[in-house]
Amino acid sequence: xxxxxMEVTEVDTMAEVRAVSTLFTxxxxxxxxxAPVHSEVMKSLVHAGxxxxxxxxxxxxxxxxxxxxxxxxxxxxxxxxxxxxxxxxRGIGRALKLRQRExxxxxxxxxIRWTFDPLVxxxxxxxxxxxxxxxxxxxxxxxxVMSDDLNGxxxxxxxxxxxxxxxxxxxxxxxxxxxxxxxxxxxxxxDPFLRLDGDARWIRVPRDIVALRRTRPAQASAWRxxxxxxxxxxxxxxxxxxxxxxxxxxxxxxxx
Length: 256
Prior knowledge:
Blueprint: E1 7-11, H1 14-28, H2 39-47, E2 51-57, E3 60-70, E4 75-83, H3 92-106, E5 111-116, H4 121-130, E6 134-139, E7 158-164, E8 182-186, E9 192-197, E10 200-204, H5 209-215, H6 217-236, E11 239-244, E12 249-254
Parallel strand pairs: 4-5
Antiparallel strand pairs: 1-2, 2-3, 3-4, 5-7, 6-7, 8-9, 9-10, 10-12, 11-12
């Protein structure tokens, strides 16, 4: 299915936000507190000036995202976004983000922020290389230890994405990054995970941390520790994460 075959719009009825809550539960599973986001909370967010955006193919819900105005002035914060299981690689995530972009710009907002798991390479590439967001803040144990199906039994670190909303939307494709620099340290799997490239750096993460958390939780935790250390060091040196290669390497460059 192409993105043009989808209907992408905001919803506000209880039936619609309940369907979104069910989708989020299908993706993350039930937590100790229940659904990842309750329908009542989403209904209240919409009433307070936020938005619940959905992508649909007829009656089928393909994905959803939740956003609210935030601080500083001119900023929106994206709380959660997901596509339905089995519907990846169809442009749904991009369609949702572009709709959030339109919603924000129509209200005079010029920046969207959100957090994401630094170890999930696919999401990181989408956020930085496809959308054009950047990251220069690393939050340690942002959610403490989570209990859903994707995050495993480990501290949930997060990078903060900052998406400056340019007048024109980002191009559909992302130019592939050419890995540079010299290997400097090996990761928990024994292969290089840090490369120094003049003032820039490259940091590799696993290709599939979700599977690793299920099969080798100790190694997954070791990845979180070494990646945390390198990002904190890079950000202290005033570097900014600007892209992710298809081979799961973050590119960090000096702040402009």
